[in-house]
């Protein structure tokens, strides 16, 4: 297996004038992470560090394991029977697969937004209040709902109709409602799996603007198949591909390259990355 992993580009100003990343301030540290569904290994040997308060994009062809890797970050794969995660995955310096770790608490701190907006069939208010209520929140729920909706750039559009069903909103509004629902439980990280692929270009742009604003307070990891989106919103990009073992016909996702988005899009170190970025493959 030939794999070239480039360390995150942490060189100072000259290389990255837009956002030098303080060395060592990583939310996630992955070392040789693999994930198998039963006997099928979907991704393997993933080693990378995800910096805090940055947007990291996971890109690569369909089936290379982007969603699988994303779900490893908050133990969402635990919910798929037969899934085995290998290697080490530290979150804020702690092994989140450790024996004493509560996966429910992991998922509260590391929230997730999915491809298709999935509001509950409840009011806008109750969608946002759902998580805090479940967690026994004792403060002012109205304030919390307003704050989450404001942060998700939805408050102005829904303030007068909080009792309306979340399902009555447009697709883009529903996705922002789902982001508000995630923010309401006060996470540290937001994982997004192709959050705009069901949205029109205007709704997509709104979500991208929202993401750019959220990174001051949160770390975002986003899977996207949209190259322009990765280039527009992310600071760091990981390119994964599918390695096909001709003998046994196994298709395993591997990390080809992880670096600043600027580097990946202008000066990729690996030809496979360049071919993918320029649309020659994938
Ligand atoms: N729950 C599952 N059970 C078995 N195989 C799965 C499951 N989810 C994904 N896979 C397989 O794992 C590989 C990676 O899938 P996925 O992570 O969804 O890729 P991507 O998001 O990059 O398209 C694919 O071969 C897919 O068929
Ligand atoms: Mg996917």
UniProtKB/TrEMBL annotation:
<dbReference type="InterPro" id="IPR017871">
    <property type="entry name" value="ABC_transporter-like_CS"/>
</dbReference>
<keyword id="KW-0813">Transport</keyword>
<feature type="region of interest" description="Disordered">
    <location>
        <begin position="1"/>
        <end position="24"/>
    </location>
</feature>
<dbReference type="Pfam" id="PF00005">
    <property type="entry name" value="ABC_tran"/>
</dbReference>
<keyword id="KW-0547">Nucleotide-binding</keyword>
<dbReference type="InterPro" id="IPR003439">
    <property type="entry name" value="ABC_transporter-like_ATP-bd"/>
</dbReference>
<dbReference type="InterPro" id="IPR027417">
    <property type="entry name" value="P-loop_NTPase"/>
</dbReference>
<dbReference type="InterPro" id="IPR005670">
    <property type="entry name" value="PstB-like"/>
</dbReference>
<keyword id="KW-1278">Translocase</keyword>
<keyword id="KW-0067">ATP-binding</keyword>
<feature type="domain" description="ABC transporter">
    <location>
        <begin position="28"/>
        <end position="267"/>
    </location>
</feature>
<protein>
    <submittedName>
        <fullName>Phosphate ABC transporter ATP-binding protein PstB</fullName>
    </submittedName>
</protein>
<dbReference type="InterPro" id="IPR003593">
    <property type="entry name" value="AAA+_ATPase"/>
</dbReference>
<dbReference type="GO" id="GO:0005524">
    <property type="term" value="F:ATP binding"/>
</dbReference>
């Amino acid at each position: 297996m030939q794999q070239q992993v480039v360390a995150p580009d942490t060189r100072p100003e000259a290389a990255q004038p837009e956002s030098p990343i303080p060395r060592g301030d990583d939310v996630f540290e992955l070392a040789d992470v693999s994930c198998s569904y039963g006997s099928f290994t979907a991704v393997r040997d993933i080693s990378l560090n995800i910096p805090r308060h940055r947007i990291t994009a996971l890109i690569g062809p369909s089936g290379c394991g982007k969603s699988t890797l994303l779900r490893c970050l908050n133990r969402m794969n635990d919910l798929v029977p037969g899934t085995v995660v290998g290697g080490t995955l530290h979150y804020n310096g702690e092994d989140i697969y450790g024996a004493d770790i509560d996966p429910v608490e992991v998922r509260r701190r590391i929230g997730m937004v999915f491809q298709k907006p999935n509001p509950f069939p409840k009011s806008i208010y109750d969608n946002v209040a759902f998580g805090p209520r479940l967690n026994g929140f004792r403060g002012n729920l109205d304030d919390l709902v307003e704050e989450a909706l404001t942060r998700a750039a939805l408050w102005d559009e829904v303030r007068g109709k909080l009792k309306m069903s979340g399902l009555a909103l447009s697709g883009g509004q529903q996705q922002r409602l789902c982001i508000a629902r995630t923010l309401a439980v006060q996470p540290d990280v937001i994982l997004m799996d192709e959050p705009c692929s069901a949205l029109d270009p205007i709704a997509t742009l709104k979500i991208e603007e929202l993401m750019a604003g959220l990174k001051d307070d949160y770390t975002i990891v986003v899977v996207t198949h949209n190259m322009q989106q990765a280039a527009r919103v992310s600071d760091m990009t990981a390119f994964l591909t599918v390695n096909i073992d001709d003998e046994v016909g196994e298709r395993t996702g591997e990390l080809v390259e992880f670096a600043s988005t600027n580097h990946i899009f202008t000066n990729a170190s690996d030809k496979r990355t360049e071919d993918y970025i320029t649309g020659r493959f994938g």
